[in-house]
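Priority: medium. Attachment 1 of 2:
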């Protein structure tokens, strides 16, 4: 589904899947490929929007929980894209890839990145992309923000009228609160979470932040 001239959205399709976003700019990026089970369906939906896997240059993740990164390697095979990790994701790899999976009784599905996310390279395009560290739901969380098209891909930091959970290994309530305060000050027209519905319109985004402050954060 096309949201802007440069941004496409593919909703999660089932268990252990996540919302997937594609950014078409100087570097074409897929964010949170999601579950291997639904990869063929994702690729089919991309093709409906005129996007081939081979159009993608980079694979990145908002954080390394299995529902967000499971299909990284499979998508790399069909696309030739490079898997890039943030430095925080390398630092906290064991916590988020191994310990979180074992918490759910799932064997860790490990993967190997091809390089680190280059903020400078991503920022060269028309969208002036910014990578923002936002720990809280996980210790390695990041958001992708475009001040030009005013979208924030937030992973599991914040949802429509809710936040990500903080009871998994690497979760931290105080970090979550601080991260939400950081992104709440951005100029956002599209709030794009890792699960559930997206939020469109600056007024609706601000209302959602207000709801979370008044009805969610105080009870964490």
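Attachment 2 of 2:
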């Amino acid at each position: 589904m096309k949201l802007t001239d440069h941004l496409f959205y593919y909703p999660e399709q089932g268990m252990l899947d996540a919302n997937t976003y594609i950014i078409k700019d100087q570097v074409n990026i897929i964010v949170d490929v999601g579950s291997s089970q639904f990869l063929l369906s994702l690729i089919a939906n991309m093709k409906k929007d005129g996007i081939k896997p081979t159009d993608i240059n980079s694979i990145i993740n908002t954080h390394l929980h299995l529902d967000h990164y499971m299909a990284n390697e499979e998508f790399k095979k069909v696309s030739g894209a490079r898997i890039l990790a943030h430095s925080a994701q390398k630092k906290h790899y064991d916590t988020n890839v191994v310990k979180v999976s074992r918490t759910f009784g799932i064997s860790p599905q490990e993967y190997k990145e091809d390089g680190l996310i280059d903020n400078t390279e991503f920022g060269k395009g028309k969208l002036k992309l910014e990578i923002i560290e936002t720990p809280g739901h996980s210790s390695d969380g990041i958001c992708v923000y475009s001040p030009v098209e005013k979208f924030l891909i937030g992973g599991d930091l914040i949802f429509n009228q809710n936040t990500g959970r903080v009871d998994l290994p690497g979760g931290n309530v105080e970090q979550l609160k601080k991260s939400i305060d950081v992104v709440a000050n951005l100029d956002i027209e599209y709030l794009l979470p890792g699960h559930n519905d997206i939020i469109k319109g600056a007024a609706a985004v601000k209302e959602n932040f207000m709801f979370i402050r008044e009805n969610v954060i105080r009870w964490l």
